[in-house]
């Protein structure tokens, strides 16, 4: 985390403290602190740009702060969508909310992926509200794997999926006891949108 330590030093030199620097550039202190703790490369691009402007440095200069040259890893640009529903195409303009870049060694670069922002607490043992999950579109979800499922045309949901004969069981993994497994039979329209292969937290 040497890069983040140097950024912290620059912020303190500029404004006296990280909190004061955060106020100067119009970012929440908790956001800037999270970026310094978790790494600049996990931050949103627009937040990195604000920090760079505040420090009067170019974004590419962050790459050069006391960091040895390393071979870069290929990444894949993945669209983040707000929801998946029967009436709205996944990649429609009004449904796209962001893009993330994911290292190709973490996913199958030959597959089609999209990302979905998690909403609610039904899976908060694994994902927090606002986390982004990477979904391998139209992939088979095997028993016990995490998948994105649409039931009877309603907005898609992220759940652990189990099969019992002709039943599909969607299992929440939540700290909230009000969430129960949902059991669907052959008479229900259950569409497996894709398999969850990774996740990312944005700040």
UniProtKB/TrEMBL annotation:
SMART domains noted in UniProt: HTH_XRE
InterPro entries: Cro/C1-type_HTH (IPR001387), Lambda_DNA-bd_dom_sf (IPR010982), LexA-like (IPR039418), LexA/Signal_pep-like_sf (IPR036286), LexA_repressor (IPR050077), Peptidase_S24_S26A/B/C (IPR015927)
Name used for this protein in its record: XRE family transcriptional regulator
All copies of domain HTH cro/C1-type, residue ranges: 7-62
UniProt organism field: Staphylococcus casei
């Amino acid at each position: 985390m040497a890069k983040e330590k140097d950024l912290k030093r620059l912020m303190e030199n500029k404004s006296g403290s990280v909190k004061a620097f955060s106020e100067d550039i119009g970012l929440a202190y908790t956001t800037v602190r999270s970026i310094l703790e978790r790494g600049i490369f996990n931050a949103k691009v627009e937040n990195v740009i604000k920090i760079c402007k505040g420090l009067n440095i170019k974004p590419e200069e962050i790459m050069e702060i006391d960091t040895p040259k390393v071979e870069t890893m290929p990444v894949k640009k993945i669209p983040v969508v707000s929801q998946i529903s029967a009436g709205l195409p996944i990649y429609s303009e009004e449904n796209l909310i962001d893009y993330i870049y994911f290292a190709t060694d973490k996913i199958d670069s030959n597959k089609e992926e999209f990302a979905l922002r998690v909403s609610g607490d039904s899976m908060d043992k694994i994902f927090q509200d606002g986390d982004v999950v990477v979904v391998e579109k139209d992939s088979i979800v095997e028993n016990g794997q995490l998948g994105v499922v649409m039931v009877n045309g309603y907005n898609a949901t992220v759940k652990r999926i189990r099969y019992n004969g002709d039943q599909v069981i969607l299992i929440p993994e939540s700290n909230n006891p009000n969430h129960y497994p949902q059991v669907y039979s052959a008479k229900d329209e259950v569409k497996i949108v894709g398999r969850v292969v990774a996740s990312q937290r944005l700040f």
